[in-house]
Specification:
The protein is an alpha+beta fold and about 120 residues long. The chain has helices at about 1-45, 60-65, and strands at about 60, 80-85, 90-100, 105-115. The longest helix has about 45 residues, at about 1-45.
């Protein structure tokens, strides 16, 4: 009986560790996909520099007609922040924020870059 209790305890510990690692792995995968999605939106902006305008600050990628969302549910269209730098008005600081829901929690990844408007 004691041996059986020890085996059940060990099995529970192993299962708990596996579930935690599985959750971390899934979150890591989602953050990687979100980061890649943000970079894809940035590359679309580099290809369509005419969209670089303060009037487009705070708009979503969907509103601007940029990169589609990754497969799967819970992804929201990224919000794009773009502002010209004071020292160089043709150089824009661009931020792309991707959010997704995972259960009751909302996660966010933000990527920043500079893009020159030519």
């Amino acid at each position: 009986l004691t041996v059986m209790a020890i085996l059940v305890s060990m099995a529970g510990s192993i299962l708990a560790a596996y579930l935690q690692v599985s959750a971390w792995t899934r979150l890591s995968w989602q953050e990687t996909v979100a980061g890649n999605y943000a970079f894809a939106v940035m590359e679309c902006l580099r290809a369509q520099r005419d969209l670089l305008d303060e009037a487009n600050d705070g708009r979503s990628a969907e509103e601007l007609g940029l990169a589609g969302a990754p497969a799967g549910s819970g992804w929201e269209s990224p919000v794009i922040g773009m502002r010209p730098l004071a020292d160089s008005p043709n150089l824009y600081q661009v931020s792309v924020m991707v959010e997704w829901d995972r259960g009751a929690t909302t996660h966010c990844v933000r990527r920043d870059t500079l893009i020159r408007k030519e």
